[in-house]
TrEMBL record:
<dbReference type="Pfam" id="PF02388">
    <property type="entry name" value="FemAB"/>
</dbReference>
<dbReference type="InterPro" id="IPR050644">
    <property type="entry name" value="PG_Glycine_Bridge_Synth"/>
</dbReference>
<dbReference type="GO" id="GO:0044038">
    <property type="term" value="P:cell wall macromolecule biosynthetic process"/>
</dbReference>
<protein>
    <submittedName>
        <fullName>Aminoacyltransferase</fullName>
    </submittedName>
</protein>
<keyword id="KW-0808">Transferase</keyword>
<keyword id="KW-0012">Acyltransferase</keyword>
<dbReference type="GO" id="GO:0016755">
    <property type="term" value="F:aminoacyltransferase activity"/>
</dbReference>
<dbReference type="InterPro" id="IPR003447">
    <property type="entry name" value="FEMABX"/>
</dbReference>
Length: 378
């Protein structure tokens, strides 16, 4: 196996073929995402088998160390390759050699590999049990042997798991909440099926929003300032640092240029007032709820539920396999402020999903240690 630089067009063609054949790929592994993360140097790389066939691809983001031409090579939620391979060295060794030549002192990646799943009933039971504090304390509904094999191989090959508090890292979340849009046999679920899987409060809130006259429409990039105003208010209320408007403008410009239906803006209005707004992203059969905002004044009209239901319905109409509500922490502690996030998402009737997480391979131990120290002080 050899690893070579790809053009963005070659990278995108590979992802189209991969997802058309039933494979999954994160939007963080699309060539366009490299344009969004403009503060990083970017490179698309491809894996070629001995016959010259392209069998894997990845987006590498290079973060430079201050004043030194040495880089952390980062593949968020990637790379896209056959993680079921019997021996991952076949893929990882040529990748490491390529990145080392490019000046990397270390490599960080997030294998898109599931290790455990918990259905909604298991999560609810954990929340209700006063003795349970973490999702890991609840027996999973499913353990992935393939995921366990990947974790075991990475440890044997000298990769280090990133230690994260509650499942949230500086990079991407290890725990996500997802709604499967296909049943166990692979048949597409209907809107009625998905609604029936939701809890009573979610169904009631969706009906309440419709009865109150909440209207959900697709916005355009011209509507981003209105979205951002509501998003900034949400950030202030919920105590997180908002991204600037320019970030979302770049994101929409880059992703729409790559695929006309890669990203959408949803706007929920009540009597002309914007009460909720969200960003939806799609790659192949995977759709994501990426960003959200909601007003405090009209929470009783349930705009957040209405806009979520619109995105789920559109994902079903697009033939998607999964609707991903993105990150949750692993806390089930009722006294932890983060538990509200999982309680909101578990009402959709989906499942909590644990990924293998992010892993580092130091290539220059001295420089890597200096970088780790630098990042810990930031």
């Amino acid at each position: 196996m050899t690893v070579r630089t790809l053009t963005p067009e070659q990278h995108l063609d590979f992802l189209r073929t991969w997802t058309a054949d039933g494979g999954s790929a994160s939007f963080l592994q699309t060539p366009a995402w490299g344009t969004v993360k403009s503060e990083w140097r970017r490179e698309s790389i491809g894996w070629y088998d001995p016959s010259g066939r392209l069998v894997g691809a990845g987006l590498v983001l290079y973060r430079q160390l201050p004043k030194v031409k040495r880089y952390l090579a980062y593949l968020p939620e990637g790379p896209v390759l056959d993680w079921d391979a019997e021996d991952l060295r076949v893929y990882l060794n040529p990748m490491v050699r390529h990145l080392k030549k490019a000046g990397a002192f270390g490599v960080r990646m997030g294998p898109p590999v599931v290790t455990r799943r918990w259905d909604a009933a298991a999560v609810k039971q954990g929340v209700a049990d006063a003795s349970v504090r973490r999702l890991g304390d609840v027996p999973p509904s499913e353990r992935s042997q393939a995921g366990a094999r990947v974790v075991s191989q990475l440890q044997e090959l000298g990769w280090r798991p990133q230690q994260v508090e509650g499942g949230f890292a500086a990079g991407q979340p290890q725990y996500n909440f997802q709604i499967p849009l296909r049943d166990a046999g692979g048949a597409a679920r209907t809107g009625e099926d998905v609604l029936a899987g939701m809890n009573q409060q979610w169904r009631r809130n969706i009906k309440k929003a419709a009865k109150a006259g909440v209207e959900v429409t697709h916005g355009t990039p011209a509507d981003l300032p209105a979205f951002h105003e509501l998003y900034a208010l949400t950030a202030e209320r919920d105590h997180f640092t908002p991204r600037p408007l320019s970030y979302f403008q770049t994101m929409f410009s880059a992703l729409l240029a790559e695929e006309p239906d890669r990203i959408r803006l949803y706007l929920a209005r009540h009597e002309g007032d914007l009460v909720a707004a969200t960003v939806w992203v799609r790659v192949g059969g995977h759709t994501w709820y990426s960003y959200g905002a909601s007003s405090t004044e009209k929470r009783d009209v349930r705009g957040s539920n209405a806009v979520q239901w619109a995105m789920i319905s559109d994902s079903l109409a697009a033939g998607a396999d999964v609707y991903d509500l993105r990150g949750i922490t692993d806390t089930l502690d009722p006294d932890d402020s983060h538990v509200g996030l999982i309680q909101f998402k578990v009402g959709t009737g989906g499942e909590a999903v644990e990924y293998a997480g992010e892993w580092d391979l130091p290539l220059n131990p001295v420089v890597y240690k200096a970088f780790s120290l630098y990042m810990s002080r930031r």
